[in-house]
Amino acid sequence: MQKRIGIVLAIALLLLSSAGAQDLFLGLGHASNFRVGPGKDSTGTQVYSFNFVFSSVLFNAAGKIVDCEFDALEVSTPNYDGASMPHFAGWPGSPEPNFTDHVTKKVTGKAPTTPEAVSADVNGWKTKRDRGDAYGMNPRNDWYHQMNVYERLFIGKTVAEIDAWYARYFSDVNGRPLNPETTVEKDAAKVAKLDPAEKAMLVDVRSGATKSAWENKKPLAK
After folding, report:
1. How many whole angstroms separate alpha carbon 156 and alpha carbon 164?
2. Strand residue runs (E) in the chain
3. pLDDT for 32-90, tens place per residue?
């Protein structure tokens, strides 16, 4: 992760020097949230997690995005069954929480909270991009593929335009892209205001865009 951020900053500095520092602006941002979930373990004990999202964004003088990259660190309690999910069992010496085996999907014991165990967990944390295909979504449709598509969509837009785009095309219920076939009343009301082209775009954003972006990728330089 640190290597990637260094590369992004190096590219940004090259762009700044070639285009003129007065024409481009580099912004580094972050946001975090705490989540009850995802789900519960096999004993019915609640899973908890948090996300720390960070970004590197280049803006031009008009406030439009020239380039951007996003990543996120998601960490859960050890009773979540995802194989690649970073875990945090608690401060050293705290009561040992349930540990879920990612193969059996069942609680198989307790996660140790010795200083050595907690340190090993924290030192092994990986961001969602670092987790790659191990994140566990559909092949060629994993988190980083989806984020690549959003990064391309944001280029050429201002933050205000992205806010308006999000408000129009994303669910107020779960924050995800609207499903044109939704039966959720609040989402269906938003979908009803869209024209056929917009609904087709949503289908592509939800399913085909990430796959086609991957299959149509081109090298930046020969």
Report:
1. 14
2. 24-40, 46-60, 65-76, 98-100, 107-110
3. 999 999 999 999 999 999 999 999 999 999 999 999 999 999 999 999 999 899 999 99
Alpha-carbon dihedral sign for residues 160, 147, 128, 105: positive
So where are the chain's domains?
1-126, 133-217
**How far apart, in Å, do the first and last CA atoms of the chain sit?**
26
Q: Which amino acid is at 5?
A: I
Exposed/middle/buried for 123, CB within 10 Å: 0-12, 13-18, 19+? exposed
78 preceded by a cis bond (ω within 30 of 0): no
The three-state secondary structure class of 35 is: strand
CA atoms of 96 and 116, how far apart (whole Å) = 14
Q: Show the tokens assigned to 123.
A: 């030192």
Within 13 Å and on the Cβ side, how many CA atoms surround 128?
Answer: 23
